[in-house]
Structure of Acyltransferase:
Amino acid sequence: MGANDKQAAQRRPALTRLRVLLIGWVLVYHLELPLRALRGLGFMEGVALKGYLGVDGFFLLSGFALVLGYAHRPPAGFAGWVGFMRGRLVRVLPLHWVMLVALLALVLAAMAAGFAVNAPERFGVREFVLQALLLHGWETTSQHAWNYPSWALSVILAGYIAFPTLLAGMVAAPAGVLLLLLVVAAVGLFALGAVDPLLQLNHTLHLGLPRFFLEFIAGMALARLVQAGVIPRGLATAGIALVPIGLWLNIDAVVVLGLAALVVRAALAEGSDEGGILHRLGEASFGVYLTFVFVEAVLVLVLRIVQPGLAGRLLLMVGGLGATFIAGWIAWRVIEVPAARWFGRGRSAGAA
C-alpha cells in the first residue's frame, strides 16, 4: 500500500464541507430537545432526534482525516508523538478553555443577577477541572456539566493519544486485515447498540470511549483502503443509502455504516476548491460545537419568558442554528486560528 501513501497529503475539501452537514445534524438534535419544534412531523422529527449520530460521523471522519494527513509522514518515536500531540492540543485547548471560562463567567453573572440556575450541581469545581483537562469522557463522571457537548472532544483526545501507535499498525496492515478490522468494528457497533435498546449508540460519558474507538479505528482503516484504491466509488455511493434505511429501521449502527460510506464518497469526490462559505464553516466545526451551549442558554431564557407556538419554535430553531454557526465561525476566526498561529510561531522559534 506504500505506493499510494502520497495521496494522503492531498487536500480533500469535500470532507471539510461534510463537517457542516454533520454538525448541522447534531445542532438540530440539541435544538429539538428543548424546543420540540418538529413534534408530530413524523419522519422529520425522527431524523432530528437521531442527530446525535452526527457525532458518530465526526468520529469516523476524525480517524479518516488523520490517516490522510499522516500516513505519508507518521509520527516516529516519543519525539514524534510529542510533536503530533502538540499540534492537536494547540488546535483544541485554547478554544475549549476560552469557552469554558466564558461559561463560568456567564454562570456567575446569572447567579449574581438572581436567576435560577437549573441543576446547579452541574457547575461544581470537580466537574470544571475534569472538563478543563478533557478527562470527563473517560468514565470519570456521570454528570453532564458545564460545556457538556465537549465530552466528544474528551474521547477524541484519547484517540489523539493512541493515534501514532494505531497508525503504525494501519500502515503495515494488508488490505485483508483492514477489511477484517471494519467487520469487527461493525459487529462492535451493533453489540454496543444492543446494550441499551433505548439509547442504542447515544452513549456519552458512559461507554462513550468504546463508541468512539470503534468508529475512529474504522475511519482509519477506511482511509487506508481509499489510499490503496480498493473501494469503488459506486460502492461508496450505494452505501450511503444505509443512512435513510437505518433511520427507517431505527437501528443506529446501520446509520453509522451509511455515514462511513458517505465519508468515503466525499473523499473520492473530484475537485479541490477550498473556497465558499461551506468550506469555511467546516473549518470552524470545533468552534460551532463549543459555542452551542451559549445559544442554548439564550433559548432556555426565552422559553422561560414566553411560550411560543409551533411557528415560533420553528423560528427559534432556525435562529438558533444560524446563531450557533455564526458564533462558531467567529470563535474559530478570533480564537482558534490566532492561537494556532501564535503557538506555531513559538514552535518554529524554539526549533531555530
About this structure: The longest helix spans residues 310-351. Confidence is low (pLDDT under 50) at residues 2-8, 348-352. The chain has one domain: 2-351.
